[in-house]
Design goal:
The protein has seven helices and no strands. It has about 190 residues and is mainly alpha-helical.
């Protein structure tokens, strides 16, 4: 696996970069984070991003916050992790508090409700686009494309159609995927 050609220059660079990421992707930043960290800044390769994102998903808490901790820690240790975390939280928290105050004023307006529904559809499309863009990295996955696609389909059916709780799907299918990967990687 090739190393990413760039890295953050300082903790301030981490803070500013993650602040801008957080402010760009209100409500779902996977597409934005992947584009910025892999395509523009080149701090991670696609494969590294997928691996780090997988780790971030199994940690408790919001995925992108976890990712900021992992990346900050990778380059600058605990100080970098805290700088990236602060970047993800400080200005967005101020923005959310301001939006909460404004929302109280317009909560019942029908046009506002429609705008929120439209934003949800856009966020879903961005997540789908990111998944499709990252799909070629599955060619190098130890489980193979076919097994990954079967696991993704089973996950969609279990959560999206059958409405099974995420925890049980994660434990069942995630556990099965871990066992399969362990068998493939075992010497």
């Amino acid at each position: 696996m090739a190393e990413a050609p760039n890295q953050p220059t300082s903790k301030t660079d981490l803070f500013v970069s993650f602040t801008l990421l957080a402010l760009q992707g209100f409500g779902g930043v996977l597409a934005v984070v992947q584009r910025e960290l892999v395509d523009k800044k080149k701090w991670l390769t696609r494969e590294e991003f997928i691996e780090e994102w997988a780790v971030a998903q199994i940690m408790p808490g919001p995925n992108v916050v976890n990712l900021s901790l992992v990346i900050g820690g990778r380059y600058f240790g605990l100080g970098g992790a805290l700088a990236a975390l602060a970047g993800m939280l400080v200005f967005p928290l101020c923005g959310v508090l301001l939006l909460a105050a404004l929302y109280a004023q317009v909560a019942g307006h029908p046009g506002f409700d429609g705008a929120l529904r439209g934003m949800g559809a856009v966020a879903a499309g961005l997540i789908l686009a990111s998944g499709l863009k990252l799909a070629p990295a599955l060619q190098r996955n130890q489980l193979g494309v076919r097994v990954c696609c079967v696991l993704a389909t089973l996950t969609f059916v279990a959560i999206g159609l059958l409405r099974w709780p995420l925890l049980w799907v994660l434990l069942g299918l995630g556990g099965m995927a871990c066992v399969l990967a362990y068998r493939k990687l075992r010497p």
